[in-house]
Amino acid sequence: MRLTSLIITALLAPLGGLAAPLAADSIVTLEARQGNCPPKPKPCVRIVPDPTPQEYKARFEQFAEAFIYKKNITRAFEFITQDYINHNPMAQNGFDSAWGILCGIWNNQNLTPLRTLYQHPMGRVNYRSGFGTIIDRFRWEGGCIAEHWDSGEKWPTNTTADPAL
């Protein structure tokens, strides 16, 4: 009986770490555990003067191409600011937190891109993954992604041409 208890404890002990919440300073540890993160880019630095709406749209298209079509997480994160605000209740704010969540898993995701939309200053990507059908909404500021929503997002009903573009 004691031997069985020891074996079960030895097998289950490593799983206890998965249930523990992560502190902001443990992201490096998470990356190290994942072990398959691509090179981490530098965060996007806001552009001054502010880009034109057309330049924003071009930057959004580059981001969407990298993020959901090529799954190049390093290139996609070149558009995200250090002080990025994440409205997902399961994630913390900041570039480093988002990188720690996605870097080790993104390239292995089976994604089916569905559509993209840029309506200044918001960009949206819609795709299917192992998590279901996802709509990510990004607010752009200074040519960079400054804010993100993905919980309960709906595709806009008005997708006519943006007058700013």
UniProtKB/TrEMBL annotation:
Leader sequence residues: 1-19
Domain of life: Eukaryota
InterPro entries on file: NTF2-like_dom_sf
Alphabetical UniProt keywords: Signal
UniProt-recorded name of the protein: SnoaL-like domain-containing protein
Organism field: Westerdykella ornata
Classification of source organism: Eukaryota, Fungi, Dikarya, Ascomycota, Pezizomycotina
